[in-house]
């Protein structure tokens, strides 16, 4: 359950910087540890996901991921979704 406390500017910046590098759960734990005065010491994975969904316009599609690509994400210790987003964003920046 989420606390209903809006994300502070500092928390929003941290989420934006961490997407693709950390999982939603890891981001929530870091927010709780880094900004306890902003969130009463607790942020949830679900809250972070909700923030990201509201901030980004998502297209919901079903995709088939080649096993070698899924294995790369696993070896990198990343969720496949975060791995794909990071890969796509790096290509857009190039």
Largest sheet properties: none
Helix count equals 6
Approximate helicity band: 55-70%
Tell me, briefly, the overall form: elongated
The rounded Rg comes to 15 Å
Question: Which residues sit in consecutive blocks of at least 5 with pLDDT less than 50?
Answer: none
Order of helices and strands: HHHHHH
In angstroms, what separates the terminal alpha carbons? 39 Å
The tally of structural domains comes to 2
β content, as a range? under 5%
Quickly give the structural class.
mainly alpha
Number of strands: 0
Calculate the mean pLDDT score and round it: 88
Report what the structure shows:
The chain has 94 residues and is mainly α. It has two domains: 9-55, no CATH class; 59-94. It has six helices and no strands. The longest helix has 14 residues, at 80-93. The termini are far apart. The mean pLDDT is 88.
Q: How would you summarize the topology of this molecule?
A:
Blueprint: H1 9-18, H2 24-34, H3 36-39, H4 45-55, H5 67-75, H6 80-93
Helix pairs in contact: 2-4
Quick description:
The chain contains six helices and no strands. The chain is mostly helical and 94 residues long. The mean pLDDT is 88.
Key traits:
94 residues, mainly alpha, 63% helix
């Amino acid at each position: 359950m989420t606390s209903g406390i809006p994300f502070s500017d500092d928390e929003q910046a941290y989420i934006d910087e961490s997407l693709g590098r950390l999982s939603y759960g890891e981001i929530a734990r870091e927010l709780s540890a880094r900004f306890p005065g902003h969130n009463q010491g607790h942020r949830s994975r679900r809250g972070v996901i909700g923030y990201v969904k509201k901030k980004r316009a998502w297209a919901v599609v079903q995709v088939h991921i080649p096993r070698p690509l899924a294995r790369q994400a696993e070896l990198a210790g990343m969720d496949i979704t975060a791995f794909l987003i990071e890969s796509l964003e790096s290509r857009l920046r190039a």
